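Deliverable D5.2: sample structural annotation.
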Amino acid sequence: MIRRVLSRKTVRRYSDRMPDEGLLDVLVAAALSTSTKSDFQQASILRVVDGGKRATIGKLFPGMPWIANAPVFFVFLGDARRLQRIGEMRGKPVNNGTLEGFFNASVDAALAMQTMILCAEAEGLGVCPISVIRNEADSVAEVLGLPDLVFPVAGLSLGYPQGDGFLSLRLPRRATVHRDSYDDTALAAAVDDYDRRRNAIHAIPKEQQRANAEFGEAAFYGWSEDKARQAAKAEGAAFPPYLRSHGFSFD
C-alpha cells in the first residue's frame, strides 16, 4: 500500500469500461468509513449519473473534458446541514453555519475523497480530483440541487485508465516537514533544487507558461514560477459569497 501511495498518478483519460456498480458501492462505503471530526460525519457524496447534468457541469470547465467524459463522476460535499437538522430533530440549538462547522465539514469531505482515491486505485481504477468546481459553486449547486449549509468541496472523475498517468514529483521533505518548531529558512534553496529536478523529469513547455503578457516569458519556468503565477491570479472569488448566502456566517 505504501508503494502504491508513493507512486500514485492523476488520471484524466479513461477507457470505456464502466466499473461494476457493486465495486462503486464498496468505494462509497469505504470513503464514508474514514476518520471524521467527533463522529459528526459531515461528508456527503453525490454521484452525478444524469448525462444532461454531467454535460452542464462540464461546460462550465471546457478545459476539463474528463468531467463529462469519465465513466463515473462524484461530487464530495461538505454537509453542515445534516448535523443542524439532527439538532432540530432532538430539540437542541445547533448552529452549524460557523467557521468551525464549515471547517469540520470541509475536512470530513476531503478525508472521504482521499480514502476513495486510495481504495479506487487499489482496485486498478484511476481518478482525477477537481477542486475547480468551487469556482462555479452557484452554478454547480443549482445543477445538483444543493440546499443551504451543503457545499461542493471537489469533484472526482473515476474510471479505468487509458494509458499511464503522470507522476508528479513532490516538494522535498526539508521544505515540508518540521521538528519541534516551524523553520522555513532553507525554503529558497529547497525550492530551487526541486524546480531543477522536476524540470529535468517533466519540463513545462513554453506555450504553457501562464500570464506571459503580465509577467513576461521566463527563461527558466519551473514549478515555483508556475505556481506563483497561478496563485497571483487568485481563484475562488465567488465561493465565499456563495457560502455566506447559503447559511454560513463564519462566526
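Annotation notes: The mean pLDDT is 96. The chain is about 45% helix and 10% strand.
The annotation will be released with the project's public dataset once the embargo ends.
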